[in-house]
Each structure stands twice: as structure tokens, then as C-alpha cells.
Design goal:
By secondary structure, this protein is an alpha/beta fold. It contains eight helices and seven strands.
Length: 228
């Protein structure tokens, strides 16, 4: 694939991220070397997120159904690109690293690429200790059960080819979809790679929507039983 003919579709699930969404969109636009479609899938924000997205000329989709995974799947349904990038809206990831993320895929070295926080740099205050422990635990389980060697299964910044996604059964509408992408990739003998990324702390007014217990149980079911 070459820059001139390559289209990257970026899916951003969002819920009340007006404090950070503009910067994420601008960083993507300013950093991508490719034709880039930016799709924000919104779950009933009431803080001006929609207005900001439209001001930045990104695609805005209102998703009435609940769930982080549901938002991502809706975004994928509207993606026009050969490669789909998924990134959180809270500016905890370096959106400016989009070229690094898609490079292994465009060079036909991988079907899935992860921006690894645990294998990279986590800035002070970026991840609570409980989350860090949980991430390491589920990543170790994934590697053991699926004969892989990744360092961060739960990263919210990843890229996949559209062809790879077409082979996957995306069973989760929740946070567990991040794990489903990887269990399905392993089952289909897809190539997974990573690069070390930087993970930042949240904006003081941006709060996580993740329920640790619910998400943890969902991920365990996916790892052990193959379903959410």
C-alpha cells in the first residue's frame, strides 16, 4: 500500500469527552500521512462533544445502543478504509503516533498492531495499581491460553486490517471487545505485533466509564469460554 492510495479509518468511541476530543481529532489529522477518515461514535453525550466533532469536520454517529464495544462495531460498519484504527477519546494515548501504529500493517508485517502501554512508558498517575495488576494478569492468561507473546491486551489504541476484522466473530458489546479482537486473531492465525507507546494521565475533568468488576468478569469469560 502507498500513501497516495491508502485510506485509514479511525474509530473513536466517545461519551462526554468534550474536554479532550478536539485535541485527539487534531492530533490524528496533523500526524497521519494517509487519507484519514475519522469517525466518532457517540453514546448520548450531553457536554458538547457532538458540536466539537462537527466543528472539526469528523464523521459523527449517534449510537443509541449501550456499550464501548457496540460503539466500536458501529464505527467499523461505517469505516471506508483498508485499515481500521481504534483509539479512546480521552487523550491518554499519543494519537500523533498513528503512523507508527499502522506501519507494520501497511508493510505487510502484521494484521493487528497494538500500542503497548505496559511495554512502553506509563506516565505518573496514568494507570491505577489495580488496573495495572488486572491488565498484566489477563495479558498473561491470554498469552498462555492462545500461545501469544503480547504485553498489553487491553490497550485502547490499536489497528487492524479490514480483511482481518471480516474473519472475526465480534461477540462483545462491552469493554471485552478489546480481548475478543485478540482471541479471534489467534484463532484465525492472524499476525499480531506491538510497538511501545506512551500512556498519559486523564484530564482532570475526564472520568473513566469502566466498571472494573463487570469488565474483569467479561474478559475472563472471553478468555476461558470464548464468549462475553
Amino acid at each position: 500500500m502507498t500513501n497516495e492510495y491508502t485510506t485509514i479509518s479511525v474509530v473513536i468511541p466517545a461519551l462526554n469527552e468534550a474536554k479532550t476530543i478536539r485535541k485527539v481529532i487534531r492530533d490524528l489529522k496533523n500526524s497521519s500521512s494517509y487519507n484519514t477518515q475519522i469517525i466518532v461514535v457517540d453514546g448520548h453525550s450531553n457536554d458538547g462533544t457532538e458540536e466539537i466533532v462537527k466543528e472539526e469536520n469528523a464523521d459523527f454517529i449517534a449510537e443509541p445502543r449501550i456499550g464501548y464495544g457496540r460503539a466500536i462495531k458501529t464505527g467499523i460498519d461505517h469505516a471506508k478504509g483498508d485499515v481500521v484504527v481504534i483509539i479512546d477519546a480521552d487523550d491518554t494515548y499519543e494519537a500523533c503516533h498513528i503512523n507508527k501504529l499502522v506501519k507494520p500493517i501497511l508493510e505487510n508485517e502484521a494484521d493487528v498492531c497494538l500500542a503497548s502501554r505496559l511495554g512502553g512508558t506509563m506516565l505518573p498517575g496514568s494507570m491505577p495499581r489495580m488496573n495495572h495488576f488486572g491488565n498484566r494478569m489477563v495479558t498473561s492468561m491470554y498469552n498462555m491460553l492462545y500461545s501469544q507473546s503480547v504485553s498489553d491486551t487491553q490497550t485502547g489504541f490499536r489497528a487492524l486490517t479490514k480483511e482481518a476484522i471480516s474473519k472475526m466473530e465480534l461477540s462483545s458489546d462491552g469493554m471485552g471487545l478489546a480481548t475478543v479482537f485478540l482471541t479471534e486473531a489467534a484463532k484465525n492465525d492472524l499476525r499480531i505485533t506491538e510497538f511501545p507507546s506512551v500512556y498519559k494521565s486523564r484530564d482532570g475533568k475526564s472520568r473513566t466509564k469502566m466498571n472494573r468488576v463487570k469488565t474483569g468478569w467479561e474478559i475472563l469469560r472471553i478468555l476461558l469460554f470464548g464468549q462475553a
